[in-house]
Amino acid sequence: MTGSVLTFGETMLLLTGRDVGAVPDLEHMRVDTGGAESNVAIGLVRAGVPATWIGRVGTDPAGDRVTADIGGEGVDVLAVPDTERSTGIMMKERLLDGRTRVTYHRRGSAGSALAATDLPGGVVETAALVHVTGITLALSESAHDTVTAALDRASAAGVPVSFDVNHRPKLIGADAARNRYRAVAARAAVVFAGDDEARLVLGREDQDDDEESLAHELAALARGRAVVKLGSRGAVASIDGVFVRRPATPVRVVDPVGAGDAFVAGWLAASLGGADAAEALDRAADAGALACTVESDWRRPDPAALHHAPDPSDTDHTDHTVHDRVDR
Question: Exposed end of the chain (fewer CB within 10 Å): N or C?
Answer without folding.
Answer: N
